[in-house]
Fold this sequence. Notes:
Blueprint: H1 2-20, H2 28-41, H3 50-70, H4 79-86
Helix pairs in contact: 1-2, 1-3, 1-4, 3-4
Amino acid sequence: MILQEMQKAIGAYREVLRLVRRLPKDTRPYYAKYARENFVNYREIDSNDPNAIQELLQRTYNHSLWVLKKYSVDQSAADRLKNICSA
């Protein structure tokens, strides 16, 4: 169970980095760094608490949608992230 949740988190991070590539070129370094910092900061989350991990994944998805909307990127680009975060 824990391994599966960790794989979901890593998959979400990978998808966020893919979405960053859709942003305007001058904003990519900022959002890539932001994603990395958050991934590192939340690695200490209680992996035995599936609710904590699911809440973090949901925040990841919601924030990604907000950023995509901010830069007028089609939100359907986040469909793969949605599948990871809602599964």
